[in-house]
Every structure is written in C-alpha cells, then in structure tokens.
C-alpha cells in the first residue's frame, strides 16, 4: 500500500501571499489531520477532515483553512502569509480519526520571506 | 488544555546501551502512540497502545500504556546507530467533537547513539 503523500515538498513564499498544500491519504483512509511543526511550538494540531467535513479545529487563526475531496484527498490553505508561518506542515491519515493509528506524510517545508 | 511532558529532552548513549523515555499528561488519554522522526521526514509510527496497562513490543522497542492512563513509556534495547532520531509520544482522547483526529504531542526526545 502506498503511504501518505504530500506535495510540494518545499515551498518558498513571500509575506502576504497565500499557499495551498496537498495531501493524499493512504488508500481506504477517510480521515486526514493536519499539523504544523516548528522548533518552538513542536507539533500542533491544525484541523481534521472526514468525509469532506471539518470535524475538529485547533487553535489557529482563520487564515488557516482546508478542505477534503470525495476521494479523501485534502488541501490546506494559508492566506496572507506571515513570517511566523514558516514551518513543516504535516498531514496524517487514519481510518476513522477516532483512536486509531495515524500515519504521516513526509511534510511540506514552507519558508516565508 | 491537555499537555504532554516528555523526558528526557535529549540522550547521548553508546551503541549497545538500553534507552528509556517517558511521557506524562495532565489528563487521561485513550490512545498512546510513539513515533520516530528523522531529519527532513515525517514522523513514523513505531508502536500504538490502546488499553491501560498494555505492554507492546516491536522488535527492540517496548512501550507501555500507564495504569492511570496519564503516562506512557518507551524502551529501546541494545541501541544501534540507526536508532538516531527524535522520538515523540502522542496521545488521543476519545471525547467526541473536540478530539476527532487530534493527537497531542510531547516535545520529543533527541537520541544520539555513539558507535
């Protein structure tokens, strides 16, 4: 079975721009969670999608949004980028998103200049 | 909110030594997961624990779900150079809406193994 894939792997953007990151879950997994990883804050939960619905959201500003498609692929969008948004963005997939194992992709390294 | 305290923050050991690390939480969890992350990669799942008191092994790795449901331990026996990386604990509470898909992570333990 193919693992979780994320594209692009690396991205450099300018402050004020917006960015869209993509995640393809493991086949058969319907839940996709997104996390932000920074040296200072560690791994922080952004949001979770299941059957095209956002079921849970972490403590991030509204500039961070996402969506999920009928094939369970997910995208996250960050608008009006700030320098502090520079981070590794990870998505993880699981069967149902409730108590099961989560499998992570390689991440997208976003640098905001 | 829930917080996970993971210790130690870093470890420098000789090849062949055993390693222990642990996580404690201010709240209970229903699931404990242990991950390893290497530079430039996402975390890789090592062990999943689902029941209080459960002891699970994966090769040289052994993890336990604490009886109180507020802690978990990971042991690595006979360490080898490829064990180098950052180890994270993560917990999930099954409580409906605010817990869907959400893992709470420890700060990580940086493991260095000297040959």
The shape of chain B is: globular
Radius of gyration of chain B: 14 Å
The dominant shape of chain A is globular
Helical region count of chain A?
A: 0
Estimate the strand proportion of chain A.
over 45%
Distance between the termini of chain A: 37 Å
Q: Unreliable runs of chain A, pLDDT <50, ≥5 residues?
A: none
Question: N-to-C terminal Cα separation of chain B, in Å?
Answer: 41 Å
Biggest interface, chains and residues, is: A-B, 31 and 28 residues
| Helix-strand category of chain A | mainly beta
What is the residue-averaged pLDDT of chain B?
Answer: 94
pLDDT < 50 stretches of chain B? none
Number of strands of chain B: 11
Strand content of chain B: over 45%
Q: What is the share of helical residues of chain B?
A: under 10%
Given helix and strand content, the structural type of chain B is mainly beta
Q: What does the average pLDDT of chain A come to? A: 96
Order of helices and strands of chain A: EEEEEEEEEEE
Describe the structure using short key phrases.
heterodimer, A: 113 residues, mainly beta, B: 115 residues, six-stranded mixed β-sheet, five-stranded antiparallel β-sheet
Description of the molecule:
The complex is a heterodimer of chains A (113) and B (115). Helix content of chain A is 0%, strand content 53%. With 113 residues, chain A is mainly β. The mean pLDDT of chain A is 96. The model of chain B has no long low-confidence stretch (mean pLDDT 94). Chain B has 115 residues and is an all-beta fold. Chain B is globular, with a radius of gyration of 14 Å. Chain B is built from no helices and eleven strands. Chain B has strands at residues 4-7, 10-14, 19-25, 31-37, 44-49, 55-58, 61-65, 71-76, 85-92, 104-105, 109-114. Chain A binds chain B through residues 4, 6, 31-33, 35, 42-43, 45, 47-50, 55-56, 58, 90, 92, 94, 97-107, 109, and chain B through 30-31, 33, 35, 40-45, 48, 50, 88, 90, 92, 94, 97-108.
């Amino acid at each position: 079975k193919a693992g979780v894939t994320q594209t692009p792997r690396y991205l450099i953007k300018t402050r004020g721009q917006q960015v869209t990151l993509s995640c393809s879950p493991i086949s058969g997994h319907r839940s996709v969670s997104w996390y932000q990883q920074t040296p200072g804050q560690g791994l922080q939960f952004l949001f979770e999608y299941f059957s095209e619905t956002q079921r849970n959201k972490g403590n991030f500003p509204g500039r961070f949004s996402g969506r999920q498609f009928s094939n369970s692929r997910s995208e996250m969008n960050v608008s009006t980028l700030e320098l502090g948004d520079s981070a590794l963005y990870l998505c993880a997939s699981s069967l149902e998103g409730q108590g099961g194992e989560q499998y992570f992709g390689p991440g997208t390294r976003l640098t905001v200049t | 909110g829930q917080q996970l305290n993971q210790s130690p923050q870093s470890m420098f050991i000789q090849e062949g030594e055993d390693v222990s690390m642990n996580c404690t939480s201010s709240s209970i969890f229903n699931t404990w997961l242990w991950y390893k992350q290497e530079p430039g990669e996402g975390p890789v799942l090592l062990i999943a624990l689902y029941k209080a008191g459960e002891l699970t092994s994966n090769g040289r790795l052994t993890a336990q779900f604490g009886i109180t449901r507020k802690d978990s331990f990971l042991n690595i026996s006979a360490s080898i150079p490829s064990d180098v990386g950052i180890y994270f604990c993560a917990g999930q509470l099954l409580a409906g809406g605010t817990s869907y898909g959400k893992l709470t992570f420890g700060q990580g333990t940086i493991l260095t193994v000297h040959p």
